[in-house]
Amino acid sequence: MLSVDFPQAVSELEDVLLVASIPIEEIVAGGGGETKNTQRLRRGLVAAGWLTTTFTIEKVINGIAREAISHKMDHVRHLPQRNGSDAVVALEIEWNNKDPFFDRDLENFKRLHAEGAISVGIIVTRGRSLHDNMLDLVLRFFDERQIQSFDDLLRWGYDPTTRQRSAIMKRIERSKNPVTFREAFSNKFVADKFGEATTHWRKLDDRISRGVGNPCPIVTIGLPDSIVSFGEDPSSLQPIIDAVGDY
Q1: Beta strands in the chain (DSSP E)
Q2: Chain centre to alpha carbon of residue 95
Q3: How far apart are alpha carbons 68 and 220 in whole angstroms?
Q4: Span 79-100, pLDDT tens digits
Q5: H helical segments located in 61-216
């Protein structure tokens, strides 16, 4: 879809996404707010001209504005066409939000496309392999860094809440089928932070399959587990897009 009608957009997205890399420490130690990975992606897109834009749609009766609805898009690219007009492509990054944010994005794409404001909507999210393998990635981090206690965690910038500590200790100290610290923490951490109710490929694909966002053309991009680094030189990594969907 993009390669035929908007090859410039494809080139710019590849320049940003194909060099994406997330140190495992950012996944484990990341706090509230927007992650450093998302911030890096945003800076790359802004540098390429994908800018935050607010679309305002007004209803005018006899020359008087009666109603106005605004839709803010995080990244919008205006691409000149041969006929002198601009094609507009809108993009949202949903790295780790609550999954209803997909509904918001897709409905915004639908409304803006119906009004002729955008030509295509794009959503970038965690790919299937990254979501499914998150527990293995965290366990590998624990093994390679020899983390065996809460004190060890603090050295890497993560301080569990009182509730999390209590839940972890219950699993470690229970009389039936006790688990190690690394197992108890990793399972609790991944379930809390990257659970099924967050934004990831399957949740997005489910909505697309139900027709949410139709009839706006949608491109969905899933970032793979290969973007996670464990001390390697980021330039040596060769991440690929986990999945791309055109709808």
Answers
A1: 22-23, 51-61, 64-80, 86-94, 120-126, 218-223, 228-229, 243-246
A2: 2
A3: 29
A4: 988 777 789 999 999 999 999 9
A5: 100-114, 128-132, 134-145, 150-154, 162-173, 181-193, 201-209
